[in-house]
Amino acid sequence: MAVILVCEGESGTVRPGDAAFSYKAGVRYPLHIGIYVGYRRKITGQAVVEVVGLPADPRGECFGRAKWGTAGTWSFTLLGQHLACDPTALKGVVELALRQEYESSLVDKSCVWSDEGWTMNSQSGSGGLRSFRRGTCAEFVDFAYRENGIVLTDPSLPLPADPRTRGVNALPHAQAYVFWSGHYGLRKWQAAMEHYPSCLAGERSVDR
């Protein structure tokens, strides 16, 4: 399956570079996304996974790594996998995420969460490769995938007229829908994508 519903006890194989999602009701931004950077392994419900993302801590603002599924961190709700992507591209996603983590450890607040538009630095300390500097969790994941040739949602995708999304270029709900449906490069907005779990609409992809 392209999406493993960990919250419902589903099992599967998680790969470095897959997208991890965390859901918590009753908060301003209930759905969170990050990139799995652990080893390829079998997971079942209530698994603990190593994820890098923005922010690393639900109470913080800085990029970093956390063990999702442990106390005080993000819950591990579901896993998104692009099953048909080039393994080299997925490896590149992991390398970018780890490079971002390393650079963020060197300079305090070099990469912070913001919903006022994302920014990047094209002259990072790693051979001139581009690094993410400010934005949301979904914008970082979009950046990491796009830099390695994987387009989750098309830049032209119109986002809903919601004050929370003003200035934002990517939403985790839409990304969850893309993994669920296999419709990569999504260009058409659907109302169901505004919320979780309605964003898991339609037939679940098994090979994309």
Rg estimate, integer Å: 16 Å
Helix and strand string, N-terminal first? EEEEEEEEHEEEHH
N- and C-termini, Cα separation: 8 Å
Helix percentage range = 10-25%
**Structural category:** alpha+beta
Broad shape: globular
- Major β-sheet strand ordering: 1-8-3-4-6-7
Report what the structure shows.
The model has no long low-confidence stretch (mean pLDDT 88). With 208 residues, the protein is an alpha+beta fold. The protein has helices at 87-106, 137-146, 172-181; strands spanning 3-4, 12-14, 19-23, 31-36, 41-43, 49-53, 64-68, 78-80, 112-113, 119-121, 131-135. 38% of the residues are buried. A hairpin with a 7-residue loop joins strand 3 (19-23) and strand 4 (31-36). It contains 3 helices and 11 strands. The protein has one domain. It is 19% helix and 20% strand.
Characteristic terms for this protein:
208 residues, alpha+beta, 6-stranded antiparallel beta sheet, 3-stranded mixed beta sheet, 3 helices, 11 strands
